[in-house]
Structures are given as structure tokens and as C-alpha cells.
Amino acid sequence: MSKNSFSNSFLRYSSYVIALGGFLFGYDTGVINGALVFMSKPDQLNLTPALQGIVSSSLVLGACFGALASGRIADKVGRRRSLRWVAFLFTVSTIFCALSINFIFMAVFRFILGLAVGAASSLSPMYLAEISPEAVRAFNVNKNAIFIVLGQLAAFCMNALLGNVWGSWGPIWRIMILLASVPAIILWINSFHIVNSPHWLLLQKQFAKARRVFKKLGFDAADLVRIKESQPAKGQTSQGPSWRSIFKSRTLLYLLISGSIVALIQQISGVNTVMYYGTILLERSGMGQSASLYANILIGIVSVIASIIGTSMIDRYDHHRMLLIGLAGNIFFLGLLGLVLQLHLLTGWLSNIVILLLLALFLASHQGVVSPVTWLIMSEMFPASVKARFMALSTTTLWMTNFLIALIYPILITALGTAAVFFIFTAANGVSVLLSAFVLDGRRIHAAYLQNEYVTQKGEKHA
């Protein structure tokens, strides 16, 4: 069954609900881009560059713990209930962030908000993969990547609108942040109307219920045969193999390390320095505050268009090759950006246009190719019995890397200058090309692992 011929309204509805987790991930990581300028003012939270780094990175630090805990929680209570808790945490923590009275309150509640962001970053792509028949799996998982950049674009648009129309009102940043509670409430309400992951139901030995859910989601006979072959070996618990068994299995250990490397590749590109500090970066390059806020909208639009085009290409072509193409684009555009900033060959409005263009092209390369392909690889490369735990550890690696970059970036550009920092990230993308050679094709290794497990189970049955 091809993607074009597949039609299931309930699956489509469920996939959009789950992808709202990605939208919230995008909005809450993107809103700080514009809000940080306003909350840093002396009559508001009075943030220095170092405190700006802490406020931005506190969410990311929380995301590390949220991602790490999400696997165990999702295995214990199920994907649907976990998503519902995440939506509730998004709502409450967003409201308290908007009401923060000083730097400490903001950092604490941003950390709590990060728990929800981290859990959603791991849970949403995994949940989408598990409810989707193979014909539309990549298409549905890619919705998460598209919704992330849609959330960032929504944040940039709200920042520009509110910042330019009501920018003279000091607490306007509170409204920017508070708006994220709206999609969080929508996610919480709609989480009561979707089904649990049928794969999780199988791991819980709820076979009759899983069969009904598979049918409701549109799985065909071929899908069900592949799913049956992927179930845990005889005598294995619903929680999957123990960590001791995992570390004894060269294949599982390879997949775990590969997942962490894929997550690392996504973050050391430097993309979130633009997403978190874009307004400050553009102001430092010569743009005014108002122009910088509007420029972020252009960057967001380019990211969304690139994400839509890129995910359709990724669905058709080899994932590893697409990753290399995206990384090559990152290296080229970041290197050019560093040269433009270093050599000062252009001045005034022409310099601003070139800088904005190169930033947009870099984000098109990363958000259109590197980011969606890494999320897709991670969602597909792990066997069902260890998927939640391996996804949690991989996304924890992602957020730990993100945290370190978000924390030190304001300090780095103050100490080294913007051009030098972009040269550092150019080199980091070069390192990512070397790291990607280790990953190769996780889906092929996953398939080989499942085949070995299937042969083993058949041998045990006949014995």
C-alpha cells in the first residue's frame, strides 16, 4: 500500500494531535528568541549576558531530565497517558514562566517547562512511528519535524507582532510566553480522544486490544506479520531486555551508541544559537530591534518551507546520503557567514541582507534536511522492546549538547566575536560528517537484528 493510496481519518487525526508535542517543543524553544530582549531590560528581569545564557539553557537542562525519564514513564504508563501528563506540565509551567517576578523564578520554571519539552521531544516521534503503518510511517514521523519549525515560526511571528506593536510596554514578553499555553491545552483535551500505542499494548500482553487498535489505525496483514516478528523473544518481560543483556549484545550496543551520535550530530551544528539568540545576533550584526524581530519571521518561513520540501525528499532517498548533503550545506553556509562577518567586505543594509540570507540558507539546510532525517533515523532504528529507553537516552544526549551550547554561546560571542563562533560551528559540522560514517544505516542493522531474533524464536519453538 503506497502513501498516496492510504487514507485513514482517525490515524490522520491522531498523528496531528501527537505532533502538537513537536509544535510546543518549537514554540517554547523559539519564543525566548524575541522575549529575551524584552525581559533583559533593567525595568524587567535585568539580565546580563551570563544570566541570559542561564535563562535560555535552564529549559534545555530540564529537557535533558525530561527526555531521560520519558522512556521509563512511557513504558510504565503508556504513550497516551504520558502525552497527557506532558500537556498538563506544558500548560502549568508556561503560566508560571509568564508570571515570573525575577531571574530565579524564571530559571526555575523554565527548567520545569524543559521537563515537558524533553519528554515531548522523545515521546512524539516514537508515538507517531508506533501508530503508523509502514506505508505512512516516515510521512507521519516527519510531521513532528515540520511541527517543530511551525512552532518556532509561530513564536517568531508573535514576538514580532507583540514586540513592534506593544514593545513600549515592558511586560510584553509575558504575553509572548503565555501564548504557548493555548496549544498545550488543546493537546491535553485531544489526548483523551486518541488510542494508545498498539506496540505498547503488545508489550503489555494486551493482545486483543492491540489487535483492535491495529485495525482501527489501518494496519494491513503485511504490517502485522512484521510486527509479530519484532516482538520480544520467548521468556522476555514486557519491559524488554535488561541493561546487562543490552551491553552484552554487540548489535543493541551499536544501535544505542549510534542513536546518541545521531542526536549529537543534530545539535553541534549550532542551529539553536540562531533559534534562541537570533534577535540578539542580528542586532549585533547591525540591525535594529524592530528589523531583527521581523527578520526572524523570514528565517522561520524559510525553515518551514525547507522542512516540508526536505521531508518529502527524505521519504524517497537514502537517509544517510541525505544527512551528508545537509551537513555539507551547513558547512558551506556557516563558513560563508563567518567570512562575511570576519572580513567586513560589506557595510550597511547590504551586509544585513547577506547575513540574513546566509542565516536563512543555513537553517534551510539544517531544518529541511539534517533535523528531520535525524529524528526519522532515531524513530526507526531501535527494536520495539528497547525503543522507549533508547529514544530517551538519544534525546537526552541531544538536550545535553543543546544545554552546553545554549549556556556558553552568549559568553563565546562576547569573548571571541560572532565570526569566530560561526567558524567553530563550521568545524563542528565537519566533525559530524566523520561521525555520520559510524552510524551508516541504522534501519538495516535493526532489520538484521529482528531477523536474528525471529530465527532464534523459531528455533526455540521447534526445539
Secondary structure elements and their pairing?
Layout lengths: L8 H31 L9 H29 L1 H20 L4 H29 L2 H32 L6 H7 L2 H10 L7 H6 L3 H11 L3 H9 L13 H6 L1 H18 L3 H14 L4 H26 L4 H25 L4 H33 L6 H30 L1 H22 L2 H21 L1
Helix pairs in contact: 1-4, 1-5, 1-6, 1-7, 1-13, 2-3, 2-4, 2-17, 3-4, 3-6, 3-7, 4-5, 4-17, 5-6, 5-14, 5-16, 12-16, 12-17, 12-18, 12-19, 13-14, 13-17, 14-16, 15-16, 15-18, 17-18
Main location: membrane
Family: Belongs to the major facilitator superfamily. Sugar transporter (TC 2.A.1.1) family.
Protein name: D-xylose proton-symporter
Fraction of residues in β-strands: under 5%
Number of H/I helices: 19
The CATH architecture name reads: Up-down Bundle
CATH class wording: Mainly Alpha
Compute the number of strand runs: 0
Poorly predicted runs: 454-463
Helix residue percentage: over 70%
CATH superfamily: MFS general substrate transporter like domains
What is the ordering of alpha helices and beta strands?
HHHHHHHHHHHHHHHHHHH
The average pLDDT score comes to 81
CATH topology title: Growth Hormone, Chain: A
Protein name: D-xylose proton-symporter
Domain Major facilitator superfamily (MFS) profile: 14-444
Membrane topology: Multi-pass membrane protein
Family: Belongs to the major facilitator superfamily. Sugar transporter (TC 2.A.1.1) family.
